[in-house]
């Protein structure tokens, strides 16, 4: 006589276990917490943001004097994001490692055995990596903003702790890093290699924007503005300059993250483990 397991479907070969969406997210969260490299990279991200911001504040005091300090409020209000060029690479590497290490170790087979439909796994990994990156990046930027204003208070350059544009920018910094982490997960899915994923991430963020303007195309000097790093810079800018507004930069970043996620989902459905 067959029995129906409370955790699975009716089967003659024993109970089957089906993970809910919440269960998949919980499983991926546990994996991310247990990944030592991810913890190290997140810690380095915090250090990069805080040290660069505070160091920039000290350098600002040393390079400005007298009346010039009173005119330095705008750069002082943006120092919380000074460490972003390094932070984005560290967070992107977390995204790549989060999935690529499972392919390297072979544990991805166990993951897809528990969740045969692969797309929910990739979606959950992107959501977990993005959420963790948002928390780390946003909190670090807010803390850096406070620390910078404390350092600058004695020089009279400090802005309000609750400077609206700076607070919005700090939160946007976390959101930008979340998008980068999602892109990193997608690259890890497509390439299945930690080294290749990180190299392509560096090319996308740092190399291509410098090469595209050299192409013999009309308006090619404007194309880099729509690459992730440049759109992200507009997304977190305290003082709006350039072609894109803050919200438009955010939309461009969301499109990049969505494009890579869809590409990864389509790729993983067609390839064997």
UniProtKB/TrEMBL annotation:
Transmembrane residues, as ranges?
A: 41-62, 82-105, 126-147, 167-191, 198-217, 247-268
Task: Kindly indicate whether the keyword Transmembrane belongs to this entry.
Answer: yes
Q: Where on the tree of life does the source sit, at the highest rank?
A: Bacteria
Report which residue ranges the record marks as coiled coil.
none
Record flagged with keyword Transmembrane helix: yes
Keywords on record: Membrane, Transmembrane, Transmembrane helix
The name this protein goes by in its record: ABC transporter permease
Give the organism, scientific name.
Arthrobacter crusticola
From the broadest rank down, the organism's phylogenetic lineage runs: Bacteria, Bacillati, Actinomycetota, Actinomycetes, Micrococcales
């Amino acid at each position: 006589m067959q029995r129906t397991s409370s955790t699975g479907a009716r089967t003659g070969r024993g109970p089957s276990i089906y993970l809910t969406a919440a269960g998949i997210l919980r499983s991926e969260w546990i994996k991310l917490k247990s990944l030592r490299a991810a913890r190290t990279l997140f810690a380095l991200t915090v250090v990069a943001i805080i040290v660069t911001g505070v160091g920039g504040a000290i350098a600002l005091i040393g390079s400005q004097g007298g009346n010039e300090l009173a005119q330095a409020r705008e750069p002082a209000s943006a120092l919380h994001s000074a460490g972003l060029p390094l932070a984005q690479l560290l967070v992107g590497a977390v995204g790549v490692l989060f999935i690529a290490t499972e392919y390297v170790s072979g544990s991805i087979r166990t993951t897809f055995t528990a969740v045969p439909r692969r797309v929910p796994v990739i979606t959950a990994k992107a959501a977990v990596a993005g959420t963790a990156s948002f928390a780390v990046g946003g909190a670090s930027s807010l803390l850096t903003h406070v620390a910078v204003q404390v350092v600058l208070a004695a020089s009279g350059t400090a802005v309000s702790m609750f400077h609206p544009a700076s607070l919005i920018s700090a939160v946007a910094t976390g959101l930008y890093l979340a998008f980068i982490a999602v892109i990193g997960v997608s690259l890890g899915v497509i390439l299945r290699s930690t080294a290749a994923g990180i190299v392509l991430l560096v090319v996308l963020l740092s190399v291509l924007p410098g090469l595209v303007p050299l192409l013999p195309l009309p308006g090619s000097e404007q194309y880099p503005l729509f690459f992730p790093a440049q759109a992200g810079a507009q997304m977190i800018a305290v003082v709006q300059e350039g072609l894109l507004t803050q919200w438009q930069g955010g939309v461009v970043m969301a499109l990049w993250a969505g494009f890579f996620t869809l590409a990864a989902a389509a790729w993983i459905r067609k390839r064997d483990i």
